[in-house]
Amino acid sequence: MTVSPLPPRRRLDATDLARVAVFAALVAVLGLPGGISVFGSVPITAQTLGVMLAGAILGPWLGALSMAVLLALVAIGLPLLSGGRGGLGVFVGPSAGYLIGWVVGAAVVGLIVHAAGRKPVWWRTVLGMLVGGVLVIYAFGVPVQSLVTRLPLDATAAVSLAFVPGDLVKAAIASAIVMTLVRAYPRAFRRTWATRPTPAETRDTAPVA
């Protein structure tokens, strides 16, 4: 029995670049309603929902690239962050760590959701959203926020915990969207899921001594 090989790695093409641009724009749009500020300086917005979706739908590397493109546009002055913020100043402010966390978080979400090139399933999707979309972003954001605001790390973390319920809601929404797309519109995903042999197929194709 012939077993389908794993799909080859694809190079970036025009479609990939368009998807990167779309998700960078999506995160920018999610910041339009504004947000709630921590200590009056770090806004908590719906933009992390876009970060989660970028990683899960584009995969780890394109998801991270889409966030890097967004931050590059912010750096040159475009007001794409919540509250119309932009410019280099945001990268030395209290929210700088969270912004870097977006790039790493999107990559981690993609790596978990599409682990080993497999089709997303609900438990891995939820895990990816929680680890990459919440824990990783906080792991980058809270220490930098503490450093910039000169508040103790434990106090900064404690106040940030008040926003975790909202992040859990965003993770649930993102997971529901991803699983709906898997069933209804798999073409939305950038990657082709690997076709892996079952144990029976492996026995059938094993060489005979």
Detailed description of the structure:
By secondary structure, this protein is mostly helical. Helices cover 61% and strands 3% of the residues. β1 and β2 form a beta hairpin. The longest helix has 28 residues. The protein is globular. The two termini are 17 Å apart.
Numbering strands along the chain, what is their spatial order in the largest sheet? 1-2
Please estimate the helix content. Answer: 55-70%
Low-pLDDT parts are: 1-7, 197-209
Question: What proportion strand?
Answer: under 5%
Q: How would you characterize the largest beta sheet?
A: 2 strands, antiparallel
Strand tally = 2
* Average of the residue pLDDT scores: 86
Inertia-based shape? globular
Sheet/helix structural class? mainly alpha
Q: How would you spell out the order of helices and strands?
A: HEEHHHHHHH
In angstroms, what separates the terminal alpha carbons? 17 Å
Number of helices: 8
User: What Rg, in angstroms, do the CA atoms define?
Assistant: 19 Å
